[in-house]
Amino acid sequence: MLTTVTTPFVKIAATASLSTEVIQDYGNFAGWLPRELNRAIVDARTNQVVNGNGSGANMLGLVNVSGILTRSIGSDTPVDCIRKAINDIRVGSSFAKADLILMHPTTHADLTLQKSTTGQYLLDPENPARLVLQP
């Protein structure tokens, strides 16, 4: 059963500053500052989506919402853990098909570096979303 949830807008803001001296001495910083400010805004937005700001039930991030599926890796391999989590969604109360998996970039890097006993990557390096099935 789907439930509509309405959440208020949340202001996402970031700051970056340079001294006049730095700008005068290093003109390249004038080009660096907008990129740095954009990076800070992306970080703030990601933090809001994942963690929320804790100001009310509708402003909780994904990790703070009850009913969000999580799975500990336990003794599974990383690939087995993800396959089991996909199955949890399929056979759980939602009977849904997983079409998006969120994970930390380091976790994704670790996952894409998993190799078989013959040294072949388990995930296709050209398309990491596709599992390479080994006989």
Notes on the protein architecture:
The protein has 135 residues and is mainly α. The chain has helices spanning 20-25, 29-51, 78-91, 105-112, and strands spanning 123-124, 127-131.
Helix and strand content put the structural class at mainly alpha
Distance between the termini: 39 Å
Q: Give the integer mean of the pLDDT values.
A: 77
Instruction: Describe the main β-sheet briefly.
Output: 2 strands, antiparallel
What is the radius of gyration?
A: 21 Å
Number of helices: 4
Keywords:
two-stranded antiparallel sheet; 135 residues; single chain; mainly alpha
List the helices and strands and how they pair.
Layout: H1 20-25, H2 29-51, H3 78-91, H4 105-112, E1 123-124, E2 127-131
Antiparallel strand pairs: 1-2
At a glance:
With 135 residues, the chain is mainly α. It has helices at 20-25, 29-51, 78-91, 105-112, and strands spanning 123-124, 127-131.
